[in-house]
Design goal:
The protein is mainly alpha-helical. 76% of the residues lie in helices and 0% in strands. The longest helix has 29 residues. The chain starts with a helix and ends with a helix.
């Protein structure tokens, strides 16, 4: 496939993936009024694991054997806690705002990669962080009393998502993608089962339909995003991830009469610009431009030398 066609196909898959993620958010918004957050998160993970299991089993025991279980556990804990935060934010704030804050992870990634992996922070990355932080303030518009609890949880979710993504970058040194997917699905399901001991509530048939929809949309979103990143470097298509803000605003307007504020729009542009700079400034040890989530076939040195 010609390079331009690959990028168009990759961008289309990323946009389709974001549509699935926002559709998942709609399901969460509807069912969150009836079920505890802990129950929703568990079934999102457990049903998703069942959907992925036939594909994961193809790898066999040799495919899932790992020497870095502690990193898989860290990725699972960070990703799962970010999921709790994100689902909570969806249920308690405007859908478009929640989608924007979900996309703050690339802004925080360079700071975490600097502290953990020793990656260099350039002046451009510091500027991107400052720009992204200003965008967050515009969206959350904190008063003199500070951030609201919901906004603080949403922002914490962005930081934890960044930690999970940096852990994925670290895992890429030795772990194939199928192994990383397997251990996240498994650890997220097992760990999210623990809170059910004090928050269990049996879903009704109507709620089961929503829970299955949430899991299917989440799994398809991950699948489309992975396919998109396998066709082109993330640095070329990451910007299309911000279609989730558009989809979130449309869903919010159609279903809940939510209005997209100018502060959210301008803040989104700030965060978008910061994410683009962060993406393009992420470099491997030898200076090759790469994104932490570039597939090995596109950025092999990034996976090995990060």
């Amino acid at each position: 496939m010609p390079q331009r066609s690959r990028i168009v196909a990759a961008a289309s898959l990323v946009v389709l993936g974001e549509l699935m993620f926002v559709s998942m958010g709609v399901g969460i918004r509807f069912v969150a009024a009836e079920l505890p957050n802990e129950v929703i998160v568990f079934f999102r993970n457990s049903i998703g694991l069942l959907i992925l299991l036939p594909f994961l089993l193809r790898a066999g025991l040799r495919g899932i054997a790992t020497r870095v279980p502690h990193l898989h556990l860290l990725r699972g804990l960070a990703g799962l806690t970010a999921m709790y935060c994100f689902f909570y934010a969806i249920a308690h704030m405007a859908l478009a705002d929640a989608m924007v804050l979900k996309l703050t992870a690339p802004v925080f990634m360079p700071l975490i990669a600097f502290a953990w992996l020793g990656e260099r922070l350039t002046p451009a990355l510091w500027g991107a962080f400052a720009l992204g932080f200003c965008g967050v303030l515009l969206i959350l518009h904190p008063g003199l009393e500070g951030l609201s609890p919901v906004a603080a949880v949403a922002l914490l979710g962005g930081v934890l998502a960044a930690l999970a993504l940096v852990t994925v970058r670290r895992l890429a040194r030795t772990e194939p993608p199928i192994r990383t997917v397997f251990y996240f699905a498994l650890s997220a399901t097992v760990i999210s089962a623990l809170p059910l001991t004090w928050s269990w509530q049996s879903p009704t048939p109507h709620e089961w339909l929503w829970l299955i929809t949430i899991a299917v949309c989440a799994t398809l979103g991950q699948w489309f995003l992975t396919l998109g990143l396998s066709l082109a470097p993330a640095s070329r298509v990451a910007i299309f991830g911000y279609f989730s803000v558009i989809f979130g605003a449309l869903y919010g307007w159609l279903l809940w009469d939510e209005v997209l504020l100018w502060s959210t729009l301008v803040g989104s542009l700030f965060i978008l610009a910061a994410a683009v700079v962060s993406t393009r400034q992420a470099r491997t040890a030898d200076g090759e431009t790469a994104h932490p989530l570039d597939p090995p076939s596109r950025s092999k040195k990034a996976a090995v030398g990060a």
